[in-house]
Amino acid sequence: xxxxxxxxxxxxxxxxxxxxxxxxxxxxxxxxxxxxxxxxxxxxxxxxxxxxxxxxxxxxxxxxxxxxxxxxxxxxxxxxxxxxxxxxxxxxxxxxxxxxxxxxxxxxxxxxxxxxxxxxxxxxxxxxxxxxxxxxxxxxxxxxxxxxxxxxxxxxxxxxxxxxxxxxxxxxxxxxxxxxxxxxxxxxxxxxxxxxxxxxxxxxxxxxxxxxxxxxxxxxxxxxxxxxxxxxxxxxxxxxxxxxxxxxxxxxxxxxxxxxxx
Length: 262
What we know:
Blueprint: H1 2-12, E1 61-66, E2 69-74, E3 81-86, H2 93-114, E4 125-128, H3 138-141, E5 145-149, E6 155-159, H4 161-165, H5 175-178, H6 185-196, H7 208-219, H8 227-230, H9 244-252
Parallel strand pairs: 3-4, 4-6
Antiparallel strand pairs: 1-2, 2-3, 5-6
Helix pairs in contact: 2-7, 6-7
């Protein structure tokens, strides 16, 4: 388990948030209304290898424009995110449907765990699933993915998830791979960055001390009891040395169960 998590820390350290600086504007509805916490703030244990396979269903696609260029947007009704791909999209629709199903499950776990989502005025979050012009050439800047917001204060995340997944384990990336919860690691990591947009200044960092361990929780099985307080990677990925959650646990009694309340 610990070896598995260490590998993912190193993997996710290649994925970064590239801020433009500043703070996304807040509207009167930007602050959450105090209320009773959800009864189950911690999602039930999900074992990616043993859980019931998620249903892969077609996702409605629509023609949109982003910065004047044509895209296809895949979005289920009511979802605060959408997968976008330059039109005509060269990615197999079955792969898109499978990745969408897996990410949607991971997103549900994430929002129940932390108690909030990306601010409504920044939604839907555009998740660019191809290495397109909006994102630039990711390989040239040495990252797998990043999150940001544009001049219209719309949050987006960039990844070439299907490109770097091809050939994983010596086989082609299949819908059966794409739907797995543990294949959402990079996407959920970048999406978690967008939760901070409009709530904090991006000048103070990308919040990897928070984003990385929480993203690991989402896709992996629930960590051991001592993980939250005692585990620290040898190569810390965070803005503050990777110690934020560890110190909040030791000094303030923070636990997974209290994360949403915090």
